[in-house]
Amino acid sequence: MRILKYAALAALLATTAAPALAVDLTIGRSSEQSSMDPQFSRTGNNQMTAEMIFGRMVQFDENLQVHPGLAESWVNIDPLTWEIHLRAGVTFQDGTPFTADDVIFSIDRTDKVPNSPAPFTDTVAAIANIERVDDLTLRVTTHNPAPSLMEDIGRVFIISKQASEGMTSDDFNSGKATIGTGPYRFINWAPGEALELERYDGYWGEQPEFKDVEIRFISNDAARVAALLSGAVDLIDAVPPDDISRLQDNPAINVVSVPSGRVIYLGLSMRMDQAPGVTDLQGNPLAVNPFRDAKVRKAISLMIDRELIVDRILGGSGVAAGQIGAPGLGGHAADLGPDMQDLAMAKQLLTEAGYPDGFGITVVSSNDRFPGDADLAQALGQMLARGGLKVTGVEALPYNVYSKAATAGDYGAFVFSLGASTPSTAPLLQSLLHTYDADAGKGAFNRVRFSYPAFDEALAQAAQQFDPETRNRMLEDVTKMVAAETPIVPLYWQKVHWAMKAGLTIAGGLSEDTRPQDVESVK
Question: Which one, 3, 10, 34, 48, has the greatest CB density within 10 A?
Answer without folding.
Answer: 34
